[in-house]
Design brief:
Number of helices: 8
Strand content: 15-25%
CATH superfamily of the largest domain: Glycosidases
CATH class of the largest domain: Alpha Beta
Strand order of the largest sheet: 4-5-6-7-8-9-10-3-11
Order of helices and strands: EEHEHEHEHEHEEHEHEHEE
Distance between the termini: 66 Å
Helix content: 10-25%
Radius of gyration: 26 Å
Number of domains: 2
Largest sheet: 9 strands, parallel
Shape: globular
Structural class: alpha/beta
Number of strands: 12
CATH architecture of the largest domain: Alpha-Beta Barrel
CATH topology of the largest domain: TIM Barrel
Oligomer: single chain
Length: 405
């Protein structure tokens, strides 16, 4: 990208100062337009702080009846109760009551307000689209459709899967061109047994993740994504370990858990069974809870959860957790107790505590143009101006002439 700034002024007569940014000789110059690296660096910095070290989020919408309007109302209620604004939020590209275009518009608005934004994708089942994101044959029978077929041309599931990738890449391009950094959370809860990408051979799942990453990043130039690996916490002695499907450090920026526990539970327990906390902490990535929900043990919701309890558990038991995001509906922060105390705790990062991301005018990247390899997300680079000083010495000599009669 080349930009020119022309300034005028007098230097020993008449002089013009021409300042311009030289064209960057880099195959991924467009990657410098979105502050992806700045966001990642900020998240990495949270673990080293004594205060303002836990980023608190409230998810926006996914389920029936949940829309940008209900999400805005939920965020506003947190501010009304606490005087503080939430620092990050999120949505899902398969929201049941909102289109992707509406979701993009809402995410752009949230980013422009200064918030960080997360985007999940309950991707429709390529083997049986009518099932939504569920397994074709029901829970715990997901393995009967091997995702290796989605990487092998010549079958209907492959064709539909590739079509979906193309469509979502187009939608993500809109966000990139608006300068929005997205915490991108695909294939979540992959160690479970309810979504179609669950219970897969390890090598097949890893290949599926890496193929999406390569297509989005290298072919489509989506340099605005921070890739989030988000397994479910280990809920039984038979559950698949949280790090089993980890696709590799070169393909992941953030790690975290989806955790739902009973409101009657004494405290957050991420060490039960095989453990969820230590295996993820060992991956040495910024870490948190991408989904959190205090579930009523009786399937109803008469008892409110106190969110300061979660904050204290993180502070005292799991200090490497740098963020959490409450889910929508009955799980949300304003639907429960302790809103003001939570948001005003010195540990909490609210909207006012976030940096001002250095977003500049985006020049859309050409589709299928390779970008920088994994591990080098770029922040905007301040090029050193080149100043050319041109001195023009203008002398005007005026002589008096006596007219002839």
């Amino acid at each position: 990208m080349k930009s020119r700034l022309l300034q005028g002024g007098l230097v020993a007569g008449v002089a013009w100062l021409l300042t311009f940014t030289p064209l960057l000789n880099h195959a991924a110059a467009q990657s410098m337009e979105v502050p992806t690296k700045q966001v990642l660096t900020f998240l990495e910095s949270l673990q080293g702080r004594q205060e303002n070290n836990i980023l608190v989020g409230q998810f926006g919408y996914f389920g029936d009846g949940e829309t940008p309007t209900t999400a805005d109302a939920r965020l506003a209620s947190i501010e009304q109760a606490s005087g503080k604004q939430i620092a990050w939020t999120g949505a899902d590209y398969e929201a049941r009551s909102a289109t992707r275009a509406e979701t993009n518009q809402w995410l752009i608005q949230q980013w422009q307000l200064g918030r960080l934004v997360m985007l999940s994708w309950h991707m429709p089942n390529p083997f049986a689209p009518e099932k939504g994101s569920d397994c074709r044959l029901g829970d715990d029978r997901c393995a009967e459709d091997n995702v290796q077929q989605l990487l092998t041309p010549g079958n209907a599931a492959y064709d539909f899967y590739q079509y979906q990738l193309t469509q979502v890449a187009d939608d993500l391009t809109v966000l990139r061109d608006a300068g929005v950094v997205i915490i991108w959370r695909p294939f979540h809860e992959m160690n479970g047994g309810w979504f179609w990408w669950h219970q897969q051979p390890k090598a097949a799942f890893v290949a599926l993740w890496q193929q999406m990453y390569t297509y989005f990043t290298e072919q489509r130039g989506l340099n605005n994504l921070l890739w989030a690996y988000s397994p479910n916490d280990v809920w039984s002695e038979w559950a698949t370990p949280v790090d089993y499907y980890y696709p590799g450090a070169d393909y992941v920026d953030l790690v975290g858990l989806d955790v739902y526990y009973s409101k009657d539970q004494e405290s957050l327990d991420l060490d039960r069974y095989a453990g969820s906390y230590q295996p993820l902490a060992a991956l040495n990535k910024p870490m948190g809870l991408f989904e959190f929900g205090p579930s009523p043990s009786n399937g109803c919701c008469p008892t409110q959860f106190d969110y300061t309890k979660l904050l204290n558990d993180i502070r005292t038991k799991y200090p490497k957790l740098a963020f959490f995001q409450a889910w929508e509906w009955i799980y949300s922060i304003p639907e429960n107790k302790g809103v003001a105390a939570l948001m005003n705790d010195p540990a909490v990062v609210d909207l006012a505590d976030l940096p001002k991301w250095s977003t500049v005018q985006v020049v859309p990247a050409v589709a299928n143009t390779p970008v920088a390899p994994k591990g080098t997300p770029f922040a905007p680079v301040a090029a050193t101006p080149i100043v050319i000083e041109i001195k023009i010495d203008i002398r005007i000599e005026i002589q008096q002439v006596t007219p002839q009669p």
